[in-house]
Amino acid sequence: xxxxxHWQSARIAALRDVTPTVREFIITPAxxxxxxxxxxxxxxxxxxxxxxxxxxSYSLVGLPEDAAGYRIAVKCLMDGHGGSRAMWxxxxxxxxxxxxxxxxxxxxxLAPATLLVAGGIGxxxxxxxxxxxxKRGLPVTLLYAARTSSELAFAEPLRALLGDALVTxxxxxxxxxxxxxxxxxxxxxxxxxxxGPAGLLDAxxxxxxxxxxxxxxxxFETFGSGGQLPTAGFEVSVPRHQTELHVAPGxxxxxxxxxxxxxVMNDCRRGECGLCTLDVLALDGEIDHRDVFLSxxxxxxxxxxxxxxxxxxxxxxxxxxxxxxxxx
Length: 328
Ligand code: FES
Description:
- With about 325 residues, the chain is α/β, with parallel strands linked by helices.
- Helix content is about 20%, strand content about 35%.
- It has three domains: about 5-100, Translation factors (Elongation Factor Tu (Ef-tu), domain 3, Beta Barrel), CATH 2.40.30; about 115-220, Rossmann fold (3-Layer(aba) Sandwich); about 235-325, Roll (Ubiquitin-like (UB roll)), CATH 3.10.20.
- The strands form three sheets. Strands 4-3-6-1-2-5 form a six-stranded antiparallel β-sheet. It has a five-stranded parallel β-sheet with strand order 9-8-7-10-11, sandwiched between helices. It has a five-stranded mixed β-sheet with strand order 13-12-16-14-15.
- The protein is globular, with a radius of gyration of 20 Å.
- The protein binds FE2/S2 (inorganic) cluster.
- FE2/S2 (inorganic) cluster binds near residues 269 and 276.
């Protein structure tokens, strides 16, 4: 599942803050029109930040006919890897490279009902999904949680679109989503789509299975979790390349390997596809697995690590050989 994106030059046509921490970008290709996309699609953005090339994926917000370009929304994460901070420093007219739209999170149109569950900035793909389902007259419910009510991005247009089928909750008010209630209300054959932190996905998955639902009817996209351990710098040894590297708190393992000229297969860069997993040869410390690709058992064994999102406290020795199964 290696990405087949084509890269193109683009510029920022418009900016708008939709909440104090979420900024919307309208991006237009330098040549030609934006390609059409289906609900659930994302755009990859490539930025040069202080000589470092950063690649980030952002879900496309809304339907292609809503804006004269690609519409994404970026949450500013002060403790992130620097991608969102770099995006927030951009102004209208600034250039960047963008991919053509990709979609690993497509809607299944034949389901008798659809439940959308979003956490925080995970609302972004749900906007187009909700719009498209309503447009086709298909039953949809959207559960949307954020830390505070002021962080509920796009809540107003979604309320206008969905009415009571939109259920929001703000954790700082002690509110929690009634996941079990929403799942129990679904007819047989319904689908659920989840986008949010790994913890939200785990909660939905647990209740979905407890309700006797089929796992293939649960589809998800995550943006990784903050991890179980504090984000700190760590050391990496790569004997195959006779290289010793340091991953700073603001960098990801894959970025540091790539900057050292070590190629790592990748696609989603958010811990879902597993393409970037590397074999662990030795570990002096702990791995903070922040992906949703490896199973709980695999995470406990610490024999593999997803280089795009997971981190280490201490030192790790890796083999970066491309694996046969990743190429098939
Ligand atoms: S690139 Fe997909 S899990 Fe790392």
